[in-house]
Every structure is written in C-alpha cells, then in structure tokens.
Amino acid sequence: MAPQQVDTTISPSATGPALALAKQHSADHPLKLYAGWFCPFVQRAWITLQEKEIDYRYIEINPYHKSPEFLALNPRGLIPTLVLPPGEEGKQRVLYESVIVCEYLDEQYNSGTKLLPWDPYERARARLWVNFVEKKLVAGWYRFMQHTPDKPYSLEGVRKEFLENLKTFVREMDEEGEGWFSEGGFGLVDVSFLPWAGRLWLMDHYKEGGVGIPKREEREGLEEGERKVWERWERWYEAVMGRETVRGTWSEREEYIGVYKRYAEDQTGSEVGKATREGRALP
C-alpha cells in the first residue's frame, strides 16, 4: 500500500484537558501558537508557553490541510509555528522548529520557569542532551513505531536500540532533587522528551512485546545497576507527567490511538513519518 498522503480523519480539535486549555487561550492576541493537538512537537512549545506564564492565542490547524494563509506564515508548513508581535515598522515575525521556539520563549520572557540554566556550562550541557533526545530518542521512537514486518531491521532490534538510548539518557539524570533531569529543576531537557515519553504506551498498544520497559514486579531479577536505571526512569516519568503544565496539554487517551495507527502501519503522510520511512533526519 502507498503511504497515506492526507490524514483526513483526525479530530478537528483537542479533547479533555487540552481542549479546556485551548479555549482559555482562544481570544485574539499578538502572540499566536499555530498548533495541532496531537503533535508532540507542538506539545513542547505549548508546555513552554504555560511554564513561562505567557498570554497567547492558541490556533488549531490540521497540518495535513495547510491553508494558503498558514503557508504564507510558514512555507514549510510545519507546526508548531509561533507568530510574534510585529517588529519595527510592523514587520511580521514568525518562528518554527519546536526547540528553537522553546528557547526563544525562555530567553525572551523572564516570567515563570527558567528552562535553560543561567550558567554557561550547564546551559551547554542541557543543549547537548536536548540534541541527544532529538537525534536518538525522538528519531528512535518513530523508527520503533513505524516498524513493519517488511523492514530490513527487526522489531526486537529496534526496541533494544531504543531502550539502550533511553538508559543512556536516564543515567545522566540528577540523582537527587525532585525527579527532573537536572538538579536545577524542571527544564528544557525534560520538555524536549516528555511528549514522546507520554506516548510510549502506544508501543504497548501497537507493537508485539510492547515498549519493553520492565514493570516494577519484573525488576527484582535485574542486576542492581539496571534496576536503579528503571527506578530512576519511573521517578522522572511520574514527576514530569504529574506537572500541572504538562497535564493540561493532553487530550483524551483514545484520541491518540487513531492518529498513531497510521504511524504503526507506516502509512502516515506526515513529514516526520516520511523522513523516518526514507531513513532521513527528522525535519
């Protein structure tokens, strides 16, 4: 079967907590977030806006039906797209690429949570691990989700690769504190991966053998180092998923099942899906 070129059955709006939050930010405002409720890249930017306690307008679009007006703002047609208040002489200003959007908001606004550390070394280290998330964990997540029996790599192989990269990430987490990646508190490294961490249950739904993270009762037989890694993972997961700014950006769980069925069958027409299918870097 040829990949689906246009995903036509996606719900036109968020549901649950995300719908309530979108409605709270539906009034006109010079700072606008063009978003898709189902998109983890959007979720990064949305969480950042909430963490920074910034007022904005949330505008839901279907990126598979890109209007001429939206493409005039962002010819690449990617979400999130952030429209800024006009610059000098009314010049329109637009940003996209989720990590860039998050960094801009963190640097531009002093309110709310500081997501990147002030210290130059700690800030560089955070960016290093955001880069690891992007290249290894996010790319690996899609490669895992889009595995089908006709792939030249095995499901077990891609699962093992993803889990090894996940363990590398976890081993770099601060051992003390409240559970965040860095001792300085909730930050951009956490934001960068949590949307995909919160979608790992979809591997259990769609992939034989599931994601492969050992449950509590399965950890007793593991060697001590391995067991501590998964205990630390669980502490981080519970901390980030329990954060109010994160909980408010989720739609009802069942809505994600239909969206990611296309990925699980490797039939999605999204740019990320196409890049994964063709072995290219994510856009």
From TrEMBL:
Keywords: Oxidoreductase, Transferase. One of its GO terms (molecular function) is glutathione dehydrogenase (ascorbate) activity. InterPro entries: Glutathione-S-Trfase_C-like, Glutathione-S-Trfase_C_sf, Glutathione_S-Trfase, Glutathione_S-Trfase_N, GST_omega, GST_Omega/HSP26, Thioredoxin-like_sf. SUPFAM superfamilies: GST C-terminal domain-like (SSF47616), Thioredoxin-like (SSF52833). Residues 29-113 form the GST N-terminal domain. It holds the Pfam family GST_C_2. GO terms for cellular component: cytoplasm. Belongs to the GST superfamily. This is Glutathione transferase omega-1.
